[in-house]
Amino acid sequence: MKTVSKLENLFAVINETAELIAKECQLTYIEAVAETGENMFQGAILQEDMSEVTIKNIKRKYESIDINSFEKEEIRKAYQLAILKGLKDGAHPNHQMTPDTIGLFLGYLVSKFIDGKKELSILDPAVGTGNLLTTILNYLSTVEEITSYGVDVDDLLIKLAYIQANLQEHPIQFYNQDSLERLLIDPVDVTICDLPVGYYPNDVEASNYELKADEGHSYSHHLFIEQSMKHTKEDGYLFFIVPNSLFETNEAPKLNQYIKKVAIIQGFIQLPLSLFKDERHGKSILILQKNGEESKRPKQALLAKLPKFSNKEAMNSIMKQIDEWFKENK
Ligand SMILES: C[S@@+](CC[C@H](N)C(=O)[O-])C[C@H]1O[C@@H](n2cnc3c(N)ncnc32)[C@H](O)[C@@H]1O
């Protein structure tokens, strides 16, 4: 018989209490996931107007686990499962959480580029559910002091992010706003972002950007790259999850020129196509270093096409090549 793991237990508590809260408070499942997370963090049942029976039932479920006994990664993963379940129904592709296969690989890349730094500031200007940012923060556990910032325009997603951060004890500063408007965040060492792809509807705001389109709406992912550059320190690194076709559209020459002027392309790594439902939505990781006194052009940018993450042999061989690249270029 299969034994129920600690993580499955935690997921069951989040899932079952969210279902009860959703039903009694007439919320969607995903809204109730946020509510139950807040309850678990506060150690209290905060929803009013629930029946005594339901309150007792929920309380019993919370008491069956000790949230403080869980590792940060266990909490993140259990929460990730509940969010995935909630986002499944009808979530827009731009509202999808970054899966941890990508997050872990990005965590590995960030740790290689920052190379033993003990203090770090990090920004995710499209933080969404916080899954990508917290996966990376958990990966960087040897960095002694991390200051982190997350911004998102969607109030439900950012609520899920701040609850995840609380439960995992990451003191992230959150801003619920449009990241392309004025951001009151000082430049950071590292910016990471799974870019929202598509058109940005606010032409007035877009007109403040070099990468605005000559005609019609601008690409929000291009504006996000420019805004991220502004909020990254000189010599700092930027890691973007971008469409494979980033450098192939009719707006691409302008983007290319802009990037060449302000930064150095350190790498472009194509993620396995099997991660995406539709091959046309395949993504890559673009790694940039903002120009500065110490920034150095690599002999050759890190270019790779990742195999399926489950293909251990092929993955080991790629990781070896990446390690070699670091030895030669960093
Ligand atoms: C691909 S998702 C990022 C997912 C996130 N990395 C995670 O792990 O949940 C893109 C995010 O960009 C946000 N977004 C889109 N346009 C935005 C804007 N103008 N300002 C701030 N956030 C925006 C969406 O709400 C969405 O959460």
Automatic annotation (TrEMBL):
Domain DNA methylase adenine-specific: 109-313
Source organism, top-level taxon: Bacteria
UniProt keyword Methyltransferase, yes or no: yes
Domain YtxK-like N-terminal helical residues, every copy: 8-87
GO terms classed as biological process: methylation
GO MF term set: site-specific DNA-methyltransferase (adenine-specific) activity
InterPro entries according to UniProt: DNA_methylase_A-5, DNA_Protect_Modify, S-AdoMet-dep_Ade-MeTrfase_prd, SAM-dependent_MTases_sf, YtxK-like_N
Entry EC number(s): 2.1.1.72
Protein's name according to its UniProt entry: Site-specific DNA-methyltransferase (Adenine-specific)
Coiled-coil boundaries: none
Presence of keyword Transferase: yes
Keyword terms of this UniProt record: Methyltransferase, Transferase
